[in-house]
Amino acid sequence: MANFQFKDGHIEQQLNAPRTLDEVRRLNEQYYFRLCNDLEAQAEAKAEAQAIAKAKAQAQAKSKTNRNKIKIQNLENELQHKKSTQDAIQEDVNVANLPITKLTKLRDDLLSSYNNYLRKINDLEQLRVLQTPNYISEIRALDQQLTAMQIDISKKVQKYQDLISIENSTYQKLLVSEQTVLDITPNPPVVCSPSAKKRKLFESDETESEFSNIITVSSTSDIEISEVCPDGQFVKLYNKGSKELALKGYELVRTTPEQNVSTVFKFHGSVNLGAGNWLTVWSSTASNQIYKHSAGSIIMDIQDWVVGDLMATILLNPEGLEVATHELKKRAGFSFTIQ
User: Fold this and answer.
1) What is the reported pLDDT for 17?
2) Which of 75, 120, 151, 337 is the 20 to 30 A CA-CA neighbour of 251?
3) CA–CA gap between residue 15 and residue 31 (Å, rounded)
4) Does the pLDDT of residue 206 top 60, yes or no?
């Protein structure tokens, strides 16, 4: 702009100077030619500047685009890396959550079972509350029945004892009358002394009565043979001590001089005889078995107690030593039966 002002001022000075018409025309042509050249030069410069600016803008845009592409690529790479990392972390989380899931399921199952048990407990508690009065009533009724049965049994026992007393009295009177008729004087009963432990089991006694069995009993321990059935139905043991005794390994042996056979019964298993208690060993064919197998009664499987006029019953301990003996000698005209 300053260059144009300078040129306009210089041209105006030349125009204002005195000139001829030809000089003025020539100067105008020169001025026009120069002005055209200047305009063309300015237009070219402007076009070149615009082209440069455009090229620069394009270069800048392209550079910016490239930078954006690089950034986008970097962002995509970073995103892919983060995605891979996230997938790996998610996989680790899934692996870590697997036992947690199992434990959670187990916890849920346990809670469900616990709730079920609680419901069952509540149901049972309600049932107990509802049925307790019934049970109490039944127990009281059973107690009353038991009391009535005990009273009835006591009455029956008393009646049975009275009958036994009457029977014994009648038998005694009959025995006395028979002795009077036969003119027989009974001998006093034989009492076993401690020295009887060493006597022979089959030793005869000249003072025996014709109408009684002679029984000799001895014992070197707390167990004694308290009773033997003359008909061979049973053998009864009694613990006269203050402690329970185990009979495992003990043997009961029955012999008679009239026969060459004997009966041997060996106690097996955990057979115990309490203090002050009896234990009855029955023959397998005994007709008066009152009890089945129990703590106070045993039935031999296939054996029977051998019988004779003179029977010796021996109790041997597990070492084979005699600890109790029982000798029974029958007299003619006497028999024994359990009622």
Assistant:
1) 61
2) 337
3) 11
4) no
